Amino acid sequence: MFHRLMLGLMICLCAGAAAAQVRIKDIVSYEGVRGNQLIGYGLVVGLDGSGDSLRNSPFTRKSIEGMLGRLGVGNLSNEAIKTRNTAAVMVTADLPPFARRGSPIDITVSSLGDASSLRGGTLLVTPLAGADGEIYAVGQGAVSVSGFSVEGNAAEVTEGVPTVARVDNGAIVEREVAFDLNAMRSIRLALRNPDFTTAARIEAAINQAGAPARARMLDSGTVEVVIDGKSDIPGMLAAIDNLTVEPDGPARVVIDAKSGTIVIGSNVRIDEVAISQGGLTVSVSESASVSQPNPISIGDTVVVPSTDIQIQRRDSGFAVVGGQVNLQQLVDGLNAIGIGAREIISILQTIKAAGALHADLEII
């Protein structure tokens, strides 16, 4: 059947259609303009019996003792603490570029012990440090959990991950990352998908825009912009952001064998090949019936299994796909055979092995 519905999802970018013009800001990142990862250790309190068991999480007990000691509570080292309303957590956050002191940032809270849920808890004051060991933010607040866990005597239902939570705007920036953008005399643009053609087009777009800067391609992943004189660098970068180019890239076919997803790039070409795909479909169904003894007789009730096996043989015949076809012709030819996405995966691998597929074949 022509254009038969595939078993998996095939996403196609039709060849021959004009490639989209995209902004430079969407395909590059700027040197020095980057975020920083922060991490901290803290306590979540106020849980409804779903916190850490102190016997299995000794670090939670030590943290509770240390916290209460700093708050003026006496020595608890010899006391039996049996609370289940506290959980030890790791707190992570991304410090965005140019974050100023006093700015709020979001944080993620993840259970470290054997707590079953963080729902309803409150994160206590937690310092967040960077890779250099310095404290850049402090987090605190009521946590928000998207998952839940319900447990009964004979059943348990868990939805999502109740031991991971977020606190929106839960941390306050206390230290800024020193970076003076206006002091730079040149800035490098790093392409997210390195390609010599795309880099050359970015260089040409910047030089033709008439900005007070000169662009020079260093390699397939880097374009250097040299600033002339004392220019307004943030303003110049804002202008470069909105310049548009047509990105390019190698012909590639990406296959996710687990889900049957196939993504074929628009530049994929194949030589003339004849394709035939056939095979067996084996269906096995199991059922059971109960055999009981006759009334007023000696015997046992037994379960009699029953198996039904059906075999369907399919032979699609040959389909010829013309030489140097474009993507649409390739997809139409494969669909004309009347096969699904998982069979197409095998066909593409075979065409590649025959040397007729002019593209990178990547299986993930």
Automatic annotation (TrEMBL):
Its main location: other. InterPro entries: Flag_FlgI (IPR001782). Residues 1-20 form the signal peptide. Keywords: Bacterial flagellum, Cell projection, Cilium, Flagellum, Periplasm, Signal. The keyword Membrane does not apply. Pfam families: FlgI (PF02119). It is found in: Bacterial flagellum basal body. The basal body constitutes a major portion of the flagellar organelle and consists of four rings (L,P,S, and M) mounted on a central rod. HAMAP family: FlgI. Assembles around the rod to form the L-ring and probably protects the motor/basal body from shearing forces during rotation. This is Flagellar P-ring protein. It comes from Sulfitobacter aestuarii. The gene is flgI.
